[in-house]
Request: fold
Amino acid sequence: MIKKPVVIGIAGGSGSGKTSVTKSIYDFFQGHSIALIEQDYYYKDQSGIPYQERLKTNYDHPLAFDNDLLIEHIQQLQQRLPINKPVYDYTVHTRSVNIIPVEPKDVIILEGILVLEDQRLRNLMDIKLFVDTDADLRIIRRLLRDINERGRTIDSVVNQYINVVRPMHNQFIEPTKRYADIIIPEGGQNHVAIDIMVTKIQTILEQNSIV
Ligand SMILES: Nc1ncnc2c1ncn2[C@@H]1O[C@H](COP(=O)(O)OP(=O)(O)O)[C@@H](O)[C@H]1O
Ligand SMILES: Nc1ccn([C@@H]2O[C@H](COP(=O)(O)O)[C@@H](O)[C@H]2O)c(=O)n1
Reply:
């Protein structure tokens, strides 16, 4: 009999602290059996589109993601099959030519702004989290990160935020909070919430008797 892995979905707005929460959980289970799947890596491949056209894409709309491939990969991992995870390059707005081979694991974390938006993805999850951080903190964090790590200018971050990120957040991301089992305020520094999550994951692993 195949033992089912625990799938944890971590959603929340851009800059809310999803990656930080994910890293805390991931680090706790290092040495155990844990895999990380970033929804961002499943943005649709745009290598056939000129760079200037890629700048016009709405990266905060559900249709920007290749969720079919993402779902296929999660299902493969659940069946204990390996996958080749795509790699995304934010600086050129498309997938890199590289892939990351991922072996099946007991715990799978699926993290991204819209992982709770697609019912098919929600149905694959055992635990659903929403990282909830005020908009002013999210834009400040994003501004610093996008300039330092994603090759952006102040102007581009501000324009994208006002014209796309903010309205899409309100239309598509914020409403998915209602699907969450647990809402984590403020993200990565919320050690109490992270400890509770880790304990819950351990309990599920024991119930599945795969610890
Ligand atoms: N509690 C926090 N206080 C200050 N900065 C934070 C906090 N949590 C995350 N950050 C920083 O904010 C930026 C965005 O956080 P990140 O975890 O990448 O968010 P997300 O994955 O939701 O976009 C990162 O540079 C991160 O280091
Ligand atoms: N080419 C791209 C692709 C995505 N984005 C933005 O990334 C945000 C999601 O990533 P987080 O780590 O912040 O959750 C999303 O809001 C997109 O606007 C981008 O700017 N360029």
